Amino acid sequence: MKKTTKYALVGLTGAAVIAWNTLGVNYMVNKEINPVKVYFSANEIPEGTEITEKMLNYVEVPAAAIPPNVITSEDEIVGKYVKYGYTIPVNSYFFSDVVLTENDMPNSSVLKLNEGEYAFPLIVDLETSLGNGIVPDTRVDLAFRTTVYNPVTDKEEPLVGIIAENVRVTSVKDNNAESVFSKDGNGKEQKAQTLTKLYTFAVDAELNELLNKAILLGGVRPIAKGETSDSETTMSMNEVITWIENNSYKVDTDQQVANNQ
Q1: How far apart are CA 179 and CA 104, in angstroms?
Q2: Residues 185-208: pLDDT tens digits?
Q3: Is the pLDDT reported for residue 252 higher than 80?
Q4: Does pTM surpass 0.70?
Q5: Domain boundaries, the chain
Q6: CB-based burial, 12-28: b 16+ in 10 Å, e otherwise
């Protein structure tokens, strides 16, 4: 009786293994032959173009027929950009190495500008980048720093103050002009992989001119909200701006016109 039971158990185990393997093979086969929706370009898409839903068509093909690196999710195509140096031909699949996010585009700082805005670049290091603590699409204050001669003390003394508030960061690039931060599947900024070398800010024409003057007269650095207090600021914003303007050379355009005539 025990011998019969033993053989019965072996038989049942063997049948279970065969059934499991059969189900596994059937699953793999069905996975390869079942149709999958894949997108292709409805027209030729030039380099640097933002891809919209109207530029897409789709077809259902067996999964095994899809080439490597082809993007099969519409959400990972629409709103992205065609990499510079490439053109997506009509009726072409969308490949992951050609379709880039806005942040990964070399001119991402310009793509994010609104009408009337200018891109102001600022080179930073580990200290002035706040240790990669500032990410794109956030807002910061900008501080002006320099030293001036004080005749009373007969010494060079620091001049520090906020020059602009609530300035929008459009891009954060590393030494290779590549995006420091990338976004995960939920659109959240992921941890930086490289060191920030260049910030770009969106500013209006007046602030762009002021910041360019400030760079020549001293230094400008980003200040995250809450980093500074009033005790650390030696001058008010109006005083800083007035000092910069007073120490900037002003061209007498009327006199220039008169001289030219």
Answers
A1: 5
A2: 455 555 566 889 999 999 999 999
A3: no
A4: no
A5: 1-33, 37-100, 108-246
A6: eeeeeeeeeeeeeeeee
Mean pLDDT of 43-70: 90
3-state secondary structure of 146: strand
Q: Three-state SS for 230?
A: helix
What kind of fold does domain 37-100 have according to CATH?
A: Type Iii Antifreeze Protein Isoform Hplc 12 (3.90.1210)
Q: Are 167 and 199 in contact (CB under 8 A)?
A: no
pLDDT tens for 112-158 read: 889 999 999 999 988 888 888 888 889 999 999 998 888 888 888 88
Rounded Cα–Cα distance for residues 105 and 179 (Å): 8
CB 56 within 8 A of CB 38: no
**Residue corresponding to tokens 């996975």:** 31
Report residue 67 as tokens: 């080439």
Q: How many residues does the chain have?
A: 261
Distance (Å, rounded) from C-alpha 192 to C-alpha 195?
Answer: 7
